Amino acid sequence: MHILVVDDERSMRDVLEIMLSRAGHQVTCAEGVRKANEVLGAAPVDLVITDMKLGASQSGMDVLRTARSLAEPPEVIVVTAFGTAVSAMEAMREGAYDYIGKPFDTEELLLLVHKALEKRALRRENLSLRAHLLPGAGLMAVGRGERMRAVRTLVDKVAPTRSTVLIHGESGTGKEVIAKEIHFKSPRASHPFLPINCAAVNEGVLESELFGHVKGSFTGATHDRAGLLVHAGEGTVFLDEIGDVPLATQVKLLRVLQERKVKPVGSSAEVPFQARILAATHRGLEAEVKAGRFREDLFYRLNVILIELPPLRERAEDIAPLAEHFLSLQRKALERPGLRFSPEALAILSSYSFPGNVRQLENVVERAATLADGDILTPASLPPSLRGEAMPGAAATAADIMLGGGFSLERHMDEAERRYLVAALTQAGGVKTRAAELLGLTFRSFRYRLAKHGLSEREDEA
Question: Rounded CA gap, 322 and 144, in Å?
Fold first, then answer.
């Protein structure tokens, strides 16, 4: 990565150049605004590290504004002297990635550089995805049914706008796919798309991730950090599983959406943000409002435009084309261009209800393609449950059950629950959020059950 260091002190330029070069980066140094602007105009730069004060009359703000005006703007880290927090916050409003105060810890700066370059790489990936998102090439275009055509029409209408969109659908229906489609079809497509699963993090971490925090606000807060809403710049922040946000955080989120400003954890100052908000949930939020688990005012703030994603069982006509789409991806991934479904296998897929929706169908196709001995995927390539066969260890019929002394239904149910938890963790490769989705549980419910069975630290148990 190419990093531009701007500082009027020769010693500081030398220190940063040595440190960043040892970290594997290409480094160019400039002592003032004019030279910095020349470098920015001559070659692609991924990150700028600039002192706020450049001599008696120049400012790092000038470097920041030049950098952010480029067609592919680099990230910018501003170095500030003690007591210049106001200038630092102004730099954040102008689009700086973050700031660090003098004197700074070397490891702290390197960590900040790493995170800024990660964001830069994400932005490039977004641009690449946009370039490849041609009409008919995305997953959205695969569905043939009337209901998905209506969803596509609505996506095309809302994408160019600034409106907040709420996406509702069962787990696995593709809510994040819809959110990405909206982003990449919008004028914000060249800016970041930053998703966060609100059910996968606890309340304190969620606030820090969304709103940011200041140094010392909690254990581990070693420096000020902007949250996703500010980091996204003019991009999009996707709040997945918004229905699982705790009520206390809902109050703060409502104010943020109304004021378009965030207050970092531990700070009394508010920072404006420009990002568009998209949200999604598998819950019926109107029912959650009536039950007192979701604020009515936040629901109406989010529910400007609602996109309903139908479950796969209600659009069976889409199963075959979706299966073919996923198999085409497996042909490339496995380098097996001859893979294809037999008519019987495709018929079985098309008649199955898929409680896990599109995600389950994708997993089934990946499993079948990976384990297939030949190029033709037959019914035998599919899981027994899809073929109507009993799974190993399935429940016995009433006539087969023998109850005797010492039987405990509670113990039996606990053992069965534990087996399913372990199976889900195994199939999800130890990723708890994915395992919770496989079982149709919220992340909090899944985490509670893990703790109940002593599995919290044993995700890899077989």
Answer: 10
On average, the pLDDT of the chain sits at 83
**Cα–Cα dist 25/405, whole Å:** 71
The reported pTM is 0.59
Q: What is the mean pLDDT of residues 405-427?
A: 73
Q: Is the separation of the CB atoms in 205 and 217 below 8 Å?
A: no
pLDDT digits (tens, 9 = 90+) for 388-404: 765 444 444 444 444 54
* Buried/exposed 37-46: b ≥16 CB within 10 Å, e otherwise: bebbeeeebb
Among residues 278, 274, 277, 257, which one has the least CA distance to residue 179? 278
C-beta separation of 33 from 62 below 8 A: yes
Which distant-in-sequence residues (6+ apart) come within 8 Å of 312 by Cβ?
172, 173, 318, 319, 322, 353, 354, 357, 358, 360, 361
| Angstrom distances, CA of residue 316 to CA of 10, 358, 454 | 68, 11, 40
Separation between Cα atoms, residue 303 and residue 257, nearest integer Å: 12
Please give the sequence-ordered ranges of beta strands (E in DSSP) within 32-178, or none if there are none. Answer: 47-51, 53-54, 58-59, 75-80, 98-101, 165-168
- Sequence-distant (6+) residues with CB within 8 A of 99 are 52, 77, 78, 79, 80, 88, 91, 92, 224
Kindly state the tokens that stand for 249.
């955080």
